[in-house]
Structure formats: structure tokens, C-alpha cells
Design a protein that fits this description.
Strand content of chain A: 5-15%
Strand order of the largest sheet of chain B: 1-2
Helix content of chain B: 25-40%
Shape of chain A: globular
Strand content of chain B: under 5%
Oligomer: heterodimer
CATH topology of the domain at 7-247 in chain A: Amidase signature (AS) enzymes
Radius of gyration of chain B: 24 Å
Order of helices and strands of chain A: HHEHEHEHEHEEHHEHHEHHHHEHHEEH
Helix content of chain A: 40-55%
Radius of gyration of chain A: 21 Å
Number of helices of chain B: 4
Structural class of chain A: alpha/beta
Order of helices and strands of chain B: HHHHEE
Shape of chain B: flat
CATH topology of the domain at 1-45 in chain B: Histone, subunit A
Largest sheet of chain B: 2 strands, antiparallel
Largest sheet of chain A: 11 strands, mixed
Chain lengths: ~475, ~110
């Protein structure tokens, strides 16, 4: 494992020539190659070494210069296999570069490889993939959570200093929480989605994993440039949060955090204890907590499984076995071959969601299900807006439990319920930071909470998230 | 009142979704859908009269950055730009000929 705990440490060492970008890269590739946790789908060793060499020649300027990272295999990378964790795209080599990958490499970061995920980002355990489940490095009887589980594991096992995942209903915050990392889901529209394989377009957002909020700031500063290739991105320019954290001397926690205590009551006892402890400590440090009510959040999972599956059924229609991806020509005609290609190329959970979404949008049901869900979605958004009139942030659990055991067998609906606390943020398009805090008294696994901000308060949330993280350390 | 999910409905949906499912899968999906749709049905208890649909947060974001930040979304000039190289794109096709996608015949022989 690398001696550097985070991006900033490694950046200082690179800058002071204590280590070269190539040495740092080799160290991380070595861990990736040991393959203890089934993290990587594709390693990009030669590509990474060449990039590191270029950085050494050029010198260290940016925070991300020479920093090894991994990408969830849902991010398009030109000429590098991109599978979406699916048999459907097993051999897909993209002819173009996605914006997130482009921005990070432009900022000097070194791509070590593409890591696994639940197929097309659909799942909460990183098990729904033909590439096999990924281990939680701290205890191999457990799973890292999903869908971006392998991204979290690559940071935890030390094969990357940061990783990019995607968060549609909690797919970054949940694994961050299970792995004791910081996960950050930006405001919807803060980061371009160009070149991010779509699951549910009105919810998907590229989201980083790192060890600290300062590292998150360095990543966010690099991926928030305006991109005319995504018209849903807000053209408000790149963030500049890392230097603000580094230059800030004011350590006061002058903030009001809203809390709906019924959410904490819904958690398992060990998680509840840990959350209550974090609140007590923050209060001691001067944070003001205010009781708020978010009455429509209890409908979030139901709303999500109508909207996300509807969007998925439409987005995944492109996989027809003709243009790219898995193809079967054994059908009796073209129509039959479409259906055959899709039924073999997609795994069970993807099929379930595409079918469910097709139902929700089908003639006779779309008003009853899809349109109605979009209205309840607005009420969830309104709940948050009402709360933000009284507080700066909303405190919430990330998950009612710690990481799942490998031998736990849940029904699809039970699995969906694990996202109860993360989904509302995506539905309302808000930014949220999952912050690790403490350990479970039951199994010693990491616990934590999330701080939710209002739309486009990303910079404020990262700055305050940094302060909160530091006082709780 | 709960919707009657049965085998016929599951088969109808699988046809619409262009996903072939086996007889065993039909019963499995029928079971899954029953519990999921029953759960989704609880949305019906929410009164949404006079509530507008929120289908994408972008619509609300727009008013934020246009009003608060004074940044407007500009449409780009309608100019021709190079698209992806056809040869490169077709490389990923399961079957192609002369840089075109090849499919099964759709016109019946007379």
C-alpha cells in the first residue's frame, strides 16, 4: 500500500520531488495487479506509465498532476474498453472520449484502469455483474455496496488515490459510507454527463470518492468546466474550492443543520448510536441543529423506482445488437434477434428494471405511474426548499445499516429499500457529501452520515464539509 | 385497489421491451412485479392536485442561474462540425459491410 494517505499528501511529495509521478504510478499499479478484491475490469498500465512519464517531464503544477485514479466502467474512455459492467458491452471500445475522463486527464491525473460496478449502475451491492462481486477490503465476508463499489474499493485498497463513480440513487454515497470514505454527489447539472453511459438521465451525476473533503475539492475543481456537449449542465464555470480550503483560517462551525429525527429512528441500533454521537460532538463544537420535517421523503423509493426505471427503459433501448454490443442472430427475424440479443446481453436486474420501466410508461399506465411520480417528486423537492429556509444543510443517515454480508439474500424490494436515505437527494437534484464517522458497535464496520446542501451550493458544502470532517476526525 | 399483475401482462411488457423471457422467468417477474407495484401503489395516497410534474431538475436549475447568477444558456451557432469517424464507429458493430451496419433481411422473398 502506498505511503500517501490522500491526494494532497501525494501532491506535496511530487512537488517537493520526494517521489516521481512514475514511482507513484508503479506503486499503485502494483496493488491493482495483486487483484485481492476483484476491483478492476481493465488495467491501463502502459497508458498510465506513459502519462506519468510525461508529467515527470512537464513538472508538477496542478493538484492532480501525477495522481493515480480509477474510473467506474460507466465512463467512456477513447480506445479503452468500456463495459458498463455488462456482458452487453463486453468488447466495446469507444471511438470518443467522455468529458469527465477528459477533464481529469487534462488536469494531470493518471488513469490506472477501469473498475467494476453493478451492470449499468443498477444495484446497491456491486453483485449484479458478470464480472463478479467485489470484496470489502477491511472484511472479506462483506460487500462494499454499490453500484460504484469497486471505485470505493480501489481507493480503500490503495490502487488509486481517488476514483470517479456515478450516483443515480446513492451509488457513490452508499459505498463511501460502507468503506469509510468521503463520497460527493454534486448538484444535478454541475458536472457534464457527456460520455457517461446513461442509466436515468434526470438523476445520474458523476461523483468522486476520496479520503478527505479537500481531495474532493481538488477533483471537483477539475470536472466542473463548462461543456457545451451536455445541455443539462449549468454553464456557470469551474469551481475553485481547493484553494479556498487551503487559504481559509476560519475554523468556526457557524452553520445551522436541519434534522428530521424520524430518519435516525429508522436506522439499526448501532448506526443510530453512531449518528447520535456525531450530532452530540458537532453540537459541542458549536454547530446549531434545528428540527425540521421532510414529510414526503418516505415516498422516495417508490418515486425513484418509477422514474429511474422509466428512464432506463428508454436509455437502454439503444442496445439492439446491431450498432454495438452483444448480438445474437439466432432469432427467426430481425425483431426476434433484437429480443434475443437483449435477453442474453443484459443480466437479471437490468432486465427487471427495463421491464418495470416499460410497464410504467406503457399506454394506459403512464399517467397513473410516471406522471404521478413526477408530481410527488416535486413535493419532495419542495420539502427540501422549505427546510433550506431555516437551515444551511440537512443532516441525514446514508444507510440504515453498515455494509451487507455476502451471504445476506434480499428480495429486489428489500434491496431497493437500502437507498431510502440517498434517493431523495437525486430526486431533488441536490448536492450531498457522505462523511465517515465512527464504527459500528456490532461489527466494527464504518458508519457515517451525509450533509445535504441546496442546489449549486456545492462550494459552500465542500468548504463546510471539510470543517465538519476535520473536527470529527 | 391493486392492479392485477398476471402472466399475460408480463409477457405483453416483455414484448414491448424487446426482452425475451422464459416460462420460469415469467413467474419470477410476475412475483417481483406484484410486490414492487404494490409498493409503488402507495404513492396514490399522496394528493397531487395543483402540483406540477418535476421530470428533470434542470428546469428548476435554469431559473436559478439565470435569475441569481445572471448566466444565460446560450445556444451554439448552427454550424457544421465534424462528427465521429464512421470507420471507427462501425468497428464496434457486430456485423458490417462497406462501413454500414448489416442486419437480417426485413423484406420477405416473393
Amino acid at each position: 500500500m502506498s505511503e500517501f494517505k490522500n491526494i494532497y499528501d501525494a501532491h506535496l511529495a511530487l512537488k517537493n520531488k520526494k517521489i516521481s509521478a512514475k514511482e507513484l504510478c508503479v506503486e499503485h499499479i502494483k496493488v491493482a495487479k495483486e487483484n485481492k478484491n476483484n476491483t478492476f475490469i481493465t488495467l491501463t498500465e502502459d497508458f498510465a506509465l506513459e502519462k506519468a512519464k510525461k508529467i515527470d517531464e512537464k513538472g508538477i503544477n496542478n493538484h492532480l498532476d501525477g495522481i493515480p485514479f480509477s474510473l467506474k466502467d460507466l465512463f467512456i474512455t477513447k480506445n479503452i474498453r468500456t463495459t458498463a459492467g455488462s456482458k452487453m458491452l463486453y468488447n466495446y471500445i469507444p471511438p470518443y472520449e467522455g468529458t469527465t475522463s477528459d477533464n481529469l486527464q487534462d488536469a494531470g491525473a493518471v488513469l490506472i484502469g477501469k473498475v467494476g460496478c453493478d451492470e449499468f449502475g443498477m444495484g446497491s451491492s456491486n453483485e449484479n455483474t458478470p464480472f463478479g462481486p467485489v470484496n470489502l477490503p477491511i472484511n472479506n465476508d462483506y460487500l462494499p455496496g454499490g453500484s460504484s463499489g469497486a471505485s470505493a474499493v480501489s481507493v480503500l485498497e490503495g490502487s488509486s488515490l481517488f476514483s470517479m463513480g456515478t450516483d443515480t440513487g446513492g451509488s457513490v454515497r452508499l459505498p463511501a459510507n460502507f468503506c469509510g470514505l468521503v463520497g460527493y454527489k454534486p448538484t444535478y447539472g454541475r458536472v457534464s454527463r457527456y460520455g457517461q453511459i446513461a442509466y436515468a438521465s434526470s438523476l445520474d451525476q458523476a461523483s468522486p470518492f476520496a479520503k478527505t473533503p479537500l481531495d474532493i475539492a481538488m477533483i471537483m475543481d477539475s470536472i466542473t468546466k463548462n461543456d457545451e456537449k451536455d445541455s443539462t449542465q449549468a454553464p456557470i464555470g469551474a469551481m475553485n474550492s481547493a484553494s479556498k480550503i487551503l487559504n481559509n483560517t476560519d475554523k468556526d462551525l457557524k452553520m445551522t443543520i436541519g434534522i428530521d429525527r424520524s430518519m435516525i429512528e429508522g436506522c439499526r441500533e448501532d448506526v443510530r448510536d453512531s449518528l447520535n454521537q456525531s450530532i452530540k460532538e458537532l453540537e459541542k463544537k458549536g454547530v446549531k441543529f434545528k428540527d425540521i420535517s421532510l414529510p414526503h421523503l418516505k415516498y422516495s423509493v417508490a418515486v425513484y423506482y418509477v422514474i429511474a426505471t422509466s428512464e432506463a427503459s428508454s436509455n437502454l433501448a439503444r442496445f439492439d445488437g446491431v450498432h454495438f454490443g452483444y448480438s445474437s442472430k439466432n432469432g427467426k427475424d430481425l425483431e426476434d434477434s433484437y429480443a434475443l440479443s437483449r435477453s442474453i446481453g443484459f443480466h437479471e436486474e437490468v432486465k427487471r428494471r427495463v421491464l418495470l420501466g416499460t410497464f410504467c410508461l406503457s399506454s394506459g399506465y403512464s399517467d397513473e405511474y410516471y406522471s404521478h411520480a413526477c408530481k410527488v417528486r416535486k413535493l419532495i423537492y419542495d420539502d427540501f426548499q422549505k427546510a433550506f429556509k431555516e437551515c444551511d444543510y440537512v443532516y441525514s443517515p446514508v444507510c440504515a445499516t453498515t455494509a451487507f454480508r455476502k451471504d445476506e439474500i434480499l428480495t429486489p424490494l428489500q434491496m431497493y429499500m437500502n437507498d431510502l436515505y440517498t434517493i431523495p437527494v437525486n430526486l431533488a437534484g441536490l448536492p450531498s457529501m457522505a462523511i465517515p464517522y465512527g464504527k459500528s458497535s456490532l461489527n466494527s464496520l464504518p458508519t457515517g452520515f451525509q450533509l445535504i446542501g441546496n442546489s449549486f451550493k456545492d462550494e459552500e458544502l465542500i468548504l463546510d464539509g471539510h470543517k465538519v470532517f476535520e473536527v470529527l476526525k | 385497489m391493486s392492479l392485477n399483475i398476471n402472466k399475460d401482462l408480463v409477457l405483453h411488457i416483455s414484448k414491448l421491451a424487446r426482452i425475451k423471457i422464459t416460462d420460469d422467468e415469467v413467474s419470477e417477474y410476475e412475483k417481483n412485479f406484484k410486490s414492487i407495484v404494490e409498493y409503488i401503489e402507495k404513492l396514490k395516497e399522496v394528493d397531487t392536485s395543483n402540483v406540477e410534474m418535476l421530470s428533470n431538475p434542470m428546469t428548476l436549475n435554469l431559473s436559478y442561474y439565470e435569475k441569481e447568477l445572471g448566466v444565460s444558456r446560450k445556444q451554439r451557432q448552427d454550424e457544421i462540425r465534424p462528427s465521429l469517424n464512421v470507420k471507427e464507429v462501425v468497428k464496434n458493430a457486430p456485423d458490417s459491410k462497406n462501413n454500414e451496419f448489416r442486419i437480417q433481411s426485413v423484406i420477405e422473398n416473393s
